[in-house]
Amino acid sequence: MKLIGTKVCKKSDLGIHNNLFGGTMLSWIDEAAVAFCSEVCFTPNLVTLKLDEVIFKEPVKENNLIKIYGQVMFFGNTTITLNVEARKFNVYTHEEKLVTTTKLVFVRIDDDGSAIPIAKHVKEKYPELNRK
Ligand SMILES: CC(C)(COP(=O)(O)OP(=O)(O)OC[C@H]1O[C@@H](n2cnc3c(N)ncnc32)[C@H](O)[C@@H]1OP(=O)(O)O)[C@@H](O)C(=O)NCCC(=O)NCCS
């Protein structure tokens, strides 16, 4: 998997139990994922269609460093599916602990917001993934 984003959990990111607020983690994942998919697909015109089941397996506390990793899983006609992992990174030991894993689907859209095909040259770079 490729590193697609790094975040620091700030005090303002915490929920009432002093763990990272889950919705903030979703926002971090969505943002890192769409940025990466835009790069892969050579277009900024992608919208989030779907987020798979998300399970928060480890608490994230203030000052924890979160690394977000992504890997392209599939191309459909108009969609790209990405596997994502968020891992807690220990700066002292460089150990990583899985916090969250999920899958996201983005759709390429035109100026009117309608789905349009992912560019052919993009899919040609991933011949092993050209099916859903
Ligand atoms: C994304 C959007 C343009 C797709 O419109 P649509 O009319 O469903 O488009 P299509 O029917 O052509 O489907 C487009 C793709 O989505 C896939 N799709 C549609 N509904 C799906 C579902 N429930 N689950 C999985 N895939 C789905 C289709 O299979 C198709 O994939 P493919 O082209 O790779 O085969 C439209 O749903 C939309 O604008 N959604 C809002 C997006 C948004 O604002 N996201 C931000 C989060 S709030």
Bound compounds, please?
Answer: coenzyme A
Strand tally is 6
Helical region count? 2
Provide the CATH superfamily: Hotdog Thioesterase
Mean residue pLDDT: 96
Number of domains: 1
β-strand amount: 35-45%
Helix content: 10-25%
Pick out the low-confidence regions: none
CATH class category label: Alpha Beta
Structural class: alpha+beta
State the end-to-end CA separation.
19 Å
Global shape? elongated
What series of H and E elements makes up the topology?
Answer: EHEEEEEH
CATH topology-level name? Thiol Ester Dehydrase, Chain A
Largest sheet: 6 strands, antiparallel
- State the CATH architecture: Roll
Task: Kindly provide the radius of gyration, computed on alpha-carbon positions and rounded to a whole number of angstroms.
Answer: 16 Å
How would you explain this protein's 3D organization?
With 132 residues, the protein is of the alpha+beta class. It has one domain: Hotdog Thioesterase (Thiol Ester Dehydrase, Chain A, Roll). Helices cover 19% and strands 38% of the residues. The protein is built from 2 helices and 6 strands, in the order βαβββββα. Strands 1, 2, 3, 4, 5 and 6 form a 6-stranded antiparallel sheet that branches. The longest helix has 20 residues, at 22-41. It is elongated. The site of coenzyme A (COA) has 13 residues, from β2 and β6.
